[in-house]
């Protein structure tokens, strides 16, 4: 695994700096299969490794959107027009991608995964007209059940915010779950053919060769044999080293270094009460019907 020296402003053979060519963003709600989708995409060994979530880029996107809304009050004196501020903000994102390209110069494609950035995918479509987007969805009952388990682990680790504060409040979990998708599904037209929506359940069963569809969409060969190759992931998964962090460890799943399994499909019946399941179905009714979960 070769690495560059991380310089900025070098040549751009992949078109990353200008258009986001050969860049794939993986998003979706937390606990919806984003890590599995990213693992499939990097299994060829011809992309960057499975990196820590691209939280820095996500923070830059948060910043850009937040200050966009306050342009007249605080930014007009500095940038003159919203378009110039947008150019400034998008240049930071493109330089970040170029940094990643320089660090992993042998990568035919870049794969970045971060559930929180899903809300900003519409912005990225405008900034990076050649980038592509993979969005995972999952049965809200299973996704929320997994969030509850994470919240319990966070609370036991002494965390007081985020999911740790939700307890068994299904409404709050559902609001978080739906919030990931609202900006994307509100208007999918800007994505054109550049977004692929995949159900977690279809991935783990490879229903209708959905993994082949993912490979064709991304233009990447997927090597399923490597999903259970621990030696490969030890070399190709930088995020695995974060398991010892008290906060990150609460999100860790042993399935992230193993072969694909459908063992977690339908687990909500073991983890949630009937009343909690009914509440999730009520709060996520439109989502469940749209993706044929009930």
Question: Your description of this structure?
Answer:
- It is a single chain.
- 48% of the residues lie in helices and 7% in strands.
- It has 294 residues and is of the alpha/beta class.
- The protein has a single domain (16-290), classed as P-loop containing nucleotide triphosphate hydrolases (Rossmann fold, 3-Layer(aba) Sandwich).
- Strands 2-1-3-4 form a four-stranded parallel sheet, sandwiched between helices.
- It is globular.
- The N and C termini lie far apart (45 Å).
Spatial ordering of strands, largest sheet: 2-1-3-4
Name the average pLDDT.
91
**Major sheet: size, sense and barrel closure?**
4 strands, parallel
CATH class term: Alpha Beta
The radius of gyration computed from the alpha-carbon positions, rounded to a whole number of angstroms, is 19 Å
Shape: globular
Domain module count:
1
State the secondary-structure class: alpha/beta
Number of strands: 4
Uncertain segments of ≥5 residues (pLDDT<50)? Answer: 1-10
The CATH topology label is Rossmann fold
Which superfamily, in CATH terms, is the homologous superfamily?
P-loop containing nucleotide triphosphate hydrolases
Q: In sequence order, what are the helices and strands, one letter per element?
A: HEHHHHEHEHHEHHHHHH
Q: What percentage of amino acids are in beta strands? A: 5-15%
Distance between the termini: 45 Å
């Amino acid at each position: 695994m070769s690495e560059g020296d991380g310089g900025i402003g070098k040549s751009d053979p992949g078109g990353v700096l200008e258009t986001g060519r050969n860049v794939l963003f993986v998003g979706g709600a937390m606990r919806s299969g984003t890590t599995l989708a990213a693992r499939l995409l990097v299994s060829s060994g011809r992309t960057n490794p499975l990196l820590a979530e691209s939280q820095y880029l996500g923070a830059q996107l948060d910043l850009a959107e937040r200050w966009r809304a306050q342009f007249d009050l605080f930014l007009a004196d500095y940038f003159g027009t919203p378009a110039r501020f947008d150019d400034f903000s998008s240049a930071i994102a493109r330089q970040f991608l170029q940094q990643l390209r320089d660090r992993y110069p042998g990568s035919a494609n870049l794969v970045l995964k971060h559930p929180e950035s899903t809300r900003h995918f519409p912005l990225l479509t405008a900034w990076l007209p050649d980038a592509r987007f993979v969005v995972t969805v999952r049965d809200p009952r299973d996704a929320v059940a997994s969030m509850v388990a994470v919240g319990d682990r966070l609370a036991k680790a002494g965390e007081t915010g985020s999911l740790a504060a939700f307890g068994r409040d299904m409404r709050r979990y559902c609001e978080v779950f739906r919030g990931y998708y609202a900006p994307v599904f509100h208007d999918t037209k800007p994505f054109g053919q550049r977004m692929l929506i995949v159900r977690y359940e279809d991935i783990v069963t490879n229903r209708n060769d959905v993994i082949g569809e993912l490979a064709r969409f991304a233009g990447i060969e997927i090597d399923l044999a490597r999903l259970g190759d621990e030696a490969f992931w030890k070399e190709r998964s930088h995020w695995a080293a974060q398991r010892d962090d008290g906060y990150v460890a609460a999100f860790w799943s042993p399935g992230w270094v193993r072969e694909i399994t459908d063992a977690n499909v339908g687990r909500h019946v073991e983890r949630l009460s009937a009343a909690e399941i009914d509440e999730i179905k009520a709060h996520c009714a439109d989502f469940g019907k749209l993706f044929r979960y009930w």
